[in-house]
Specification:
The chain has 263 residues and is of the alpha/beta class. The protein is built from 7 helices and 14 strands. It has 2 domains: 132 residues, Orthogonal Bundle (serine acetyltransferase, domain 1), CATH 1.10.3130.10; 81 residues, Hexapeptide repeat proteins (UDP N-Acetylglucosamine Acyltransferase, domain 1). It has a 5-stranded parallel beta sheet with strand order 1-4-7-10-13. The chain starts with a helix and ends in a 14-residue tail after the last strand. The mean pLDDT is 94.
């Protein structure tokens, strides 16, 4: 096969006319600029919001190929919600600083905690998700996933004062509901019992009520699974059924002492 035929075959196989990777790159740049605008003391808010509006228009042009999506009307409503989002994120940061004995200051939380960065990008993406803005919210949370190892679908619903300790490896599915003052440790999965395309519009992921603590590597699955308020889920627990409030669930390992023969 000559070079011309190879090129023609490659072009023939490029079947997605709207697949433009600059959308991903521009979303990541938009996400960073938005984060700095909300948190960095030296970043001018008014000037950056004006630039973010222009950046958002570029994302609209790339992402909104469906003419029925009212993407151009979203920015004004989105900006109006930023103070409330920032208020929630400040509560998240305070929860981390309050609960983690390794935290020396709230500034340390904002600057260095992957769990805070991941929940910040989730909250910023979630508002675009519920407004119906296509693809960009998922690209935002996947950007945070790439940087932190925390995978939060932008469709999840997360309440106030959310604390992820160490954070790496946490997975929170699209229809998960997490209420207020919940603490989750590394490696926790809030997932679906199984994956099938016909479950797209059904609740597939668990609900976690107020004041629950879930320790490392616990796996909680199923849309009907509810973790009752004030409960503690121990490390490595596997749950597919609901538990009542004030429960303690633990995984008890089997311990065997090996016998050593002395010659």
């Amino acid at each position: 096969m000559n070079k011309k035929n190879i090129i023609q075959n490659i072009i023939k196989q490029k079947q997605q006319p709207h697949l433009k990777f600059k959308l991903k790159e521009r979303t990541e740049a938009f996400t960073n600029k938005l984060f700095y605008t909300l948190f960095d003391a030296e970043t001018p808010v008014e000037e950056n919001l004006e630039q973010l509006e222009l950046d958002f228009e570029g994302l609209v042009d790339l992402a909104c190929w469906d003419v029925d999506k009212p993407c151009k009307k979203l920015w004004e409503n989105y900006v109006a919600k930023l103070p409330t989002i920032l208020e929630k994120l400040n509560l998240d940061a305070q929860a981390i600083a309050k609960n983690d004995p390794a935290s020396n200051s709230v500034e340390e939380v904002y600057l260095s905690y992957p769990g805070f960065f991941a929940v910040a990008i989730y909250r910023l993406a979630h508002e675009l998700y519920i407004a119906g803005f296509p693809l960009v919210p998922r690209l935002m949370t996947e950007y945070a996933h790439k940087l932190t190892g925390v995978d939060i679908n932008p469709g999840a619903k997360i309440g106030d004062s959310f604390f992820m300790d160490h954070a790496t490896g946490i997975v929170i599915g699209e229809t998960a509901v997490i209420k207020n003052n919940v603490k989750i440790y590394q490696g926790v999965t809030l997932g679906a019992l199984y994956v099938a395309r016909d479950l797209k519009h059904t609740k597939r992921h668990p609900t976690v009520e107020n004041n629950v603590t879930i320790y490392a590597n616990a796996t909680i699955l199923g849309g009907d699974t509810v973790i009752g308020a004030n409960s503690i889920i121990g490390g490595n627990v596997w749950l597919t059924n609901s538990i009542s409030e004030n429960s303690i669930v633990s995984h008890t390992p089997e311990i065997k002492i090996k016998t050593v023969k002395n010659d």
